[in-house]
Design goal:
single chain, mainly alpha, Growth Hormone, Chain: A, about 0% strand, globular, membrane, MFS_spinster-like, transmembrane transporter activity, transport
Length: about 425
């Protein structure tokens, strides 16, 4: 199938999908930079703000992801991506005209539903139009787009904040995305277009079977605990980091966008690259090494998180943030490799989807929401500094996650088929 599409068309399609992947995180991060302004203008408390940034997004993201992905396996993926981009871009623009908590909730639900479908459909399309020897780099590049989007969202929002209010920024960022969706529809390659009936893929293993497999495997139960604990802390810092620097250190939005965006880019990108290199070199056939490597990184992240929270100097806090994100990021690649070694090859795709679902619900959903409610609970005693004890409390999840990673490695039992392959 890859041979039927010209290199220029493949590269154009990749460029559009890469842009879509960046844009999805840009739209999310803009909200985090302006959430204190939104809180003030709409008369919200931190608990309601946590629901907006957390559970209202994560829950509908998880609900929408699987049915859209199932359609994308059978239908026109170019159309799926285009419509998803248009939906979430329109929802981003609608955030700029929301006048109440519930109007903002509805806009965030639209944002989540749109973003949930674009990722699986774009990966499915790209892995079909590129030859096998280029698929790994294509997938890795798409994953890297998330780190770029997280940072770019903060950079862009910080820059725009110098000239426009939050409502205008949402409109400025949201509306052009509709044109990007149209470009995806007009110019992306889709091998299925005009082919008549689409061949239905073989029956896939369902999520229920993946969950039963995880429940019946000691090592994967520890992995499940890790996938709940670590994202709670990680996403709490990502979602509330901008508010933290504005409230605790008095940074402007422009300063916060630049410095926090840069810190996230450095920590996430270097961490992902280092994790992949180390896991490939020493952990490929050694689940115990992967567990210890991931666990020690998470345990090292705890003191850095506490230093970040309680440092009096914003630039020391930023340095701690870079270090914390770096060592936290070391866990995911090795843990995924450890998990894949213990399930059949036919279950790996659904295992990946399940891992992503757990990370999203625990991280954006629980982490983002719980931080808001904890900040609200601490407010009577700490005032504007209430995010400090809130984030410090959730940092304790890193210790649980580190122990879970080590135990997952100690109890891992790779399947014989993977040992033979090695």
């Amino acid at each position: 199938m890859a041979q039927e599409i010209s290199p220029m068309r493949r590269n154009l399609t990749f460029g559009l999908m890469f842009l879509v992947a960046i844009l999805s995180y840009v739209d999310r991060q803009i909200f985090t930079l302006f959430q204190d302004d939104i809180k003030l203008e709409l008369g919200l408390n931190d608990g309601q703000l946590g629901l907006l940034t957390g559970m209202s997004f994560a829950l509908f993201y998880a609900i929408a992801a699987f049915p859209i992905a199932r359609y994308a396996d059978r239908g026109d993926r170019r159309l799926v991506v285009a419509l998803c981009v248009m939906v979430w871009s329109a929802a981003t623009a609608l955030c700029g005209v929301a006048n109440s908590f519930w109007q903002m909730v509805l806009a965030r639900i639209g944002l989540a539903a749109g973003e949930a479908g674009a990722g699986p459909a774009s990966i499915s399309l790209l892995t079909e139009i590129f030859p096998p020897e280029r698929r790994t780099i294509v997938i890795s590049s798409m994953l890297a787009a998330s780190a770029i989007g997280i940072s770019a969202g903060l950079w862009l929002a910080g820059w725009l904040s110098q000239f426009f209010n939050w409502r205008e920024v949402f409109l400025i960022v949201g509306l052009p995305g509709i044109l990007i969706g149209l470009a995806v529809w007009l110019f992306s390659a889709e091998p299925r277009r005009g082919k008549g009936d689409v061949v239905v893929p073989p029956q896939q293993i369902g999520m229920a079977e993946v969950m039963r497999t995880m429940a019946g495997n000691v090592s994967l139960r520890w992995v499940g605990l890790l996938l709940i604990m670590v994202p709670v802390t990680g996403f709490a810092f990502i979602i509330w980091g901008a508010s933290f620097f504005q409230r605790v250190h008095g940074m402007t939005k422009a300063e916060t966008g630049f410095w926090l965006g840069t810190a996230m880019a450095v920590g996430l990108v270097i961490g992902n690259l280092a994790a992949g290199w180390v896991a490939d070199k020493w952990g490929k056939d050694n689940p115990r090494f992967n567990g210890w490597f991931a666990g020690l990184g998470l345990l090292a992240a705890f003191p850095l998180a506490m230093l970040f929270v309680y440092s009096a100097n914003p630039y020391v806090a930023l340095a701690c943030f870079v270090g914390m994100k770096f060592v936290m990021t070391l866990h995911l690649g090795p843990i995924i490799a450890l998990s894949f070694a213990q399930v059949p090859v036919a279950m790996r795709a659904m295992m990946s989807a399940t891992i992503n679902m757990l990370i999203g619900l625990a991280g954006t959903g629980v982490g983002g929401t719980l931080t808001g409610f904890l900040s609200e609970a601490y407010a009577p005693g700490f005032g504007e500094m209430s995010l400090r004890p809130a984030l410090a409390t959730l940092s304790c999840c890193l210790i649980v996650g580190g122990i879970a990673a080590i135990m997952a490695g100690r109890t891992a039992k790779p399947l014989k088929e993977h040992i033979v392959e090695a």
